[in-house]
User: Fold these one by one.
Assistant:
Number 1:
Amino acid sequence: AAQVAALPGVVNVQADVIRYPQTDYGPAWIGAEGIWDGTTTGGLDGTMGEGVIVGILDTGLNMDHPSFAATSPAPDSYTHVNPYGSGNYVGLCDSAPGTWVCNDKLIGYWIYTGETHEDTDGHGSHTGSTTAGNPLPAGMADLTPYAYSPAISGVAPHANVIGYDVCDDDGGCPGAASIAATDQTVLDGVDVINFSIGGGTSNPWTDAGSLAFLAASAAGVVPVTSAGNNGPGASTVGSPGDSPWMFTIGASTHNR
């Protein structure tokens, strides 16, 4: 290190550090417990998402992950109720139940990219479990080879989930796939869409994807999207987050 530091053009030499994925503290940081137990709901009943169907438009889901199990592990031990009736599903779990296996929490799965597999990217499973994943005790979220297995939970852990794969393996998410999936959420009776996908800005009144979300909103679906990974300068919220009919969410603070 001393020899490298003495080389011309070297400004600084530091020991490497290992960092780990850090998404476990989100519900506590945003005060979700007050919604769960009713202490911050302004007199409304507390809720952990019971009876709500969330559509995850993303890279797919790992369908057998414990975050999407029909009964969450102890100490939560919540048994989900399928709003379609137990054993009734939509998408591939209905048309090819021997290959695609749903349950009373994960009640449907669609693919709009021509793929024939579950989530190989991990982003959809990440956003899906952050949105509505079961509470998992420490040690269950195996992130091998990382020595990191905290207790985790989705913000609405008792909600039902439908997965919509709208992104290719190369990381791109075709607009046509997202539009088709958005239309399907209306037919499936989804209450909330999570769309943690975005890009450069476009005119929301002419952009086909933004207009699809407007139509879904008019049909009673709440479309939620991410503010993006850019910023904090002006005009750094991409589309469809710049559409006035979207709930566009970004973190303004964190505790790390």
Number 2:
Amino acid sequence: RHNVAIMMEDITQRVTLEEQLRHSERLAMIGQFSAGVTHEINNPLSIIKGNVQYLREQIRRGIDFNAKSSLKELKDTLEAVEHETTRCANIIGELLHFAKRTDAKQRSRISINHLVMYVLRLIKGQLSLKKIKVVCELADRIIVVHGNRELLQQVVMNLIFNAEQSMGKRGGVITIKTLQDRSRVYLVVKDNGCGIPKEIRRFIFNPFF
């Protein structure tokens, strides 16, 4: 006769809390680079406003838009407005995409280089305001991995934000490198900030440290 003991644990609540934590961290990141995003949106908005004011002034002067030269000028001005409006929409769309809840188990084929460039598009405004230069040394060949896109984006953004926070008011340089060696893929984020003291390095993977 055999005695069998079966122990079961309901981890539904834990999984839900972990999901909520990941979402909260993503929203916290959005708060961090909101200043940079505001700067990014203000630029195209200024161009749109300037072009609209120019057209209004031309209409007030009674310009003949049927004339060939004036018609071309009108078309060019409207195209500039349309381009900058699309640019604003893209910035907001990328933010909303980054902020949305995602399934941590969802995996897909990801180009590491494209992922790095996507993250940099989101936060380049903030880095520019902090006088931080980004140097990209991305592999010439397309490196593809299988994983969760949103979580990998969050990892890259965390590394860049940590690098940014280690620099003073004078700014600095962040170097991002991708390479592949046989079956391994490397993503390297390097900065010239103050570094991590040896005595606390063993704690860096603790939550909220």
Number 3:
Amino acid sequence: EREERAELGDDREAGALAEVLASMKELNTSLVAAVRGETEVYGFLCLRDDRLRDAYTPEEIVILRALAAQAASAVESLRLYERLRDRDRLAALGEMAAGLAHEIRNPLGSIKASAQFLAESAEPAGKRDPSHEFLGIIVEEVDRLNRVVSSFLDYARPTAGSHEPLDPTATVERTLQLLRPELGPELVLAMELAPSLPAVRIDPERLRQVLLNLIQNAAQAMDGRGKLSIRTSVLERTVEIAVSDTGPGLPARVRENLFVPFVTTKDRGTGLGLAISQRIVSAAGGRIEARAS
């Protein structure tokens, strides 16, 4: 067919067929069937028989295509099963977390109240008790444990809230308005917002939570000094919100585990902020990823 196309002067089609032949030669195959799902190609079935030039009949090719379709269906069924299994696991984890939080928060509240009472009574007028400092540490650490428990609950519980269509640009602008006083004078904020974006189905409070986490992480990575950029764009009906900074970046080994719960590079971080953000975005049908600039 390539030779016929070349003789007819159809150089474009002949060139495309030549590329196909070159690719098949590299794969050492004479017959290729795509394992194609609804939205992507999972792989290829490649066959070769050197005994004959035309080794496969049209009927056999039809059978191979049917086999490729069955393979694609099996891959999609497996992915669906994995999603259902993860959902059931997270549901059980959420129930356990609710009970665990209840059991932990009650004694934490008692410990904090007792430490505060002792701190007030252990400091006579004009005289400082040395134990007062340690009581303050107890209160501070109780507050930190309470934040860890709350973050764990946010990760374990299924995301709730309204999923009515919203304007993502308005949510980005509102989030920046809330955060701007906290960013500091030495941090330069650059915004590149698309003039009009399609509405997205996500709870506005959840989207704001994701943005707050990403922007605060970027600001902390630069120690409050540098350039923080927020860009919105749309590609093939997909809205992208990009947060970038001029910080030192993350090593490859850290990026690989960036969304794993309880993995953190901060001294006092819980390691759940990005994991929660990933759950929120995934529940809305999107994805979140980190890229090295």
